[in-house]
Amino acid sequence: MVIGLDGATFDLIQPLMDAGKMPNLVKMASEGVKAKLRSTILPLSPPAWTSFLTGKNPGSHGIYDFAVRAEGSYEFRPTTSLDQKSRTMWDVVGENGGHSLMVNVPLTYPPTAFRGSMISGFPTPTELGDWTHPPELLKKLEKQFGSVNIHKPKVLYRKGREREITDETNQITKLQTRVVKYLMDDSDWDLAVSVFDATDVIGHYFWAYLDPKHPKYDPKMAGPVREMVEEVHVELDRAIGDLSAAVGPDTLKLVMSDHGFGPVYYGVYINNWLLQESYMKFRRDLAVRARYFAFRHGLNVYNLLRLARKLRLVKSIESAYSAKSMALRFLDLISLSLKDIDWAQTTVYSAGNMGQLYLNLEGREPNGIVKPEDAKRLVAELVAKIKALEDPATGKIMFDAVFAGEDVFRGPQSAVGPDVVFLDQQMIYAAHRMFELGSSRLVTPHPIYSGNHKMEGILLGSGPQVKRNGAPDGFIPNLIDLAPSILRVLGCPLPGGMDGRALDELFVWPETTGRPGWAPESARIQQTIRKLSSQRSI
């Protein structure tokens, strides 16, 4: 059983464990293993959770971000599970005769057929009613629980809604726990994965009140919000305890996160730098010149998004990621965008949640002008310049981890990935998450979040399959190592092509391979025993 805490970090969890406020995690750590867990580059939920599910890097599975370039164009569309090109853990478990439960794992919409059950995760258009497998599962769950919408809170954050978001988040955690317990009890399963969104929600929205140095820090709100953050973690710990008790001591139990979290101060609009450096140019027709004039004088997404939220054109997180969002269509119509670029004179452009750079490559982009033989030189030039890029206001170097795409992504899908990726590992600076030409400035206060993703998440585990002496000092496993480790614990032959490895440092392996349920301790057999015991008269 895997319990995912999206964006959980020991920076918040460890003090609560030390204070005895997360006793179930304390128990798990004392009986098994506790370690940091290194995320994908970049630490974004779509590639991270997909890498967890496949044991592969984005160059193999093809998921890089919440959006993907539409083939044959410069436009981006929302990424879905159909863009994923590799076999998942549930595929391998099914091929070996087992069953899986997948609950709220990000980027699993739309659900596809497999041996098991699924409630798809963020982003899911819940209004469509097609987010479970099998399809009839939704009605079954609604009959049992009423609403089973266990996805992120629907409201976008604004100051003053902290209590509302905390209460809704905790209610979702409670409901999801009940749903998962019901699904585990209702079926024979070999692998169960349930991802809780609560830590990601509060990390993005509340971090300004956890960091006295944060530009958005409010000392009057700091105390109450800290208590809310504690409430959310205590509720998650209670869920971990309930689910652990439900599967018993002989089941392998893992608690992990796809990435960590920390404060983010500033948004960086990297296309403005590309314009300044003449890597990018706009068309010169009258309409574009008018939009550019307005852009330079404040009619840009940074300002318009706030207006759109006040006018309730953006009502939810899901709507912000929807290609049909009224807000996005409105903003696209009146503000400067990538559609206004003169591609015949543009060699590089930035698109994505962390400012990823793409060459306007001949033979790949529709109007590519960078010749393949010049690509390596241009990428090296960009890497060197981004490493030296300074905040104009302070002179501070903004990004300390800068990579050529070919040095990070390996596999048949690497060609569709970005050519340069970069991040500030402290996440003080983050390339703006969604709108590539959001502001006429290079750096602004981050317009949406006060917290953002970091590279190091969490991993805790207990059960007879976990070595009791814990992780070696300083050992940090990778997210892609979990799939091969879980499959090997289940006794499944590992498929070829995995980039991760089974973690000999942390786990005890079965002596044989084959169908999941390799030992009497399997969750399926234990469930049967518990059901028979509960039916026995006393």
Note poorly predicted spans: 316-323, 514-538
Mean pLDDT across every amino acid position: 88
Distance between the termini: 30 Å
Strand content: 5-15%
Number of strands: 19
What order do the helices and strands come in, and which of them pair?
Elements: E1 2-5, H1 10-18, H2 23-31, E2 33-38, H3 45-54, H4 58-61, E3 67-69, E4 76-78, H5 89-95, E5 100-105, E6 116-120, E7 132-133, H6 137-145, H7 162-186, E8 191-196, H8 198-206, H9 219-247, E9 253-256, E10 260-263, E11 266-268, H10 270-276, H11 286-296, H12 301-310, H13 317-321, H14 326-334, E12 348-350, E13 357-359, H15 372-387, E14 401-404, H16 405-408, E15 420-423, E16 429-431, E17 443-445, E18 451-454, E19 456-462, H17 482-489, H18 523-535
Parallel strand pairs: 1-8, 1-9, 5-6, 5-8, 11-16
Antiparallel strand pairs: 2-19, 3-4, 6-7, 9-19, 10-18, 11-17, 12-13, 14-15
Helix pairs in contact: 7-8, 7-9, 8-9
Please, could you describe this protein's structure?
This protein has about 550 residues and is of the alpha/beta class. The chain has two domains: about 1-265 and about 455-535, Alkaline Phosphatase, subunit A; about 265-300 and about 335-450, 2-Layer Sandwich (Gyrase A, domain 2), CATH 3.30.1360. About 35% of the residues lie in helices and about 15% in strands. The chain has 18 helices and 19 strands. The chain has helices at about 10-20, 25-30, 45-55, 60, 90-95, 135-145, 160-185, 200-205, 220-245, 270-275, 285-295, 300-310, 315-320, 325-335, 370-385, 405-410, 480-490, 525-535, and strands at about 1-5, 35-40, 65-70, 75-80, 100-105, 115-120, 130-135, 190-195, 255, 260-265, 265-270, 350, 355-360, 400-405, 420-425, 430, 445, 450-455, 455-460. The protein has an eight-stranded mixed beta sheet, sandwiched between helices. Strand 12 and strand 13 form a beta hairpin. Helix 7 (about 160-185) packs parallel to helix 9. The protein starts with a strand and ends with a helix. Residues about 315-325 and about 515-538 have low confidence and may be disordered.
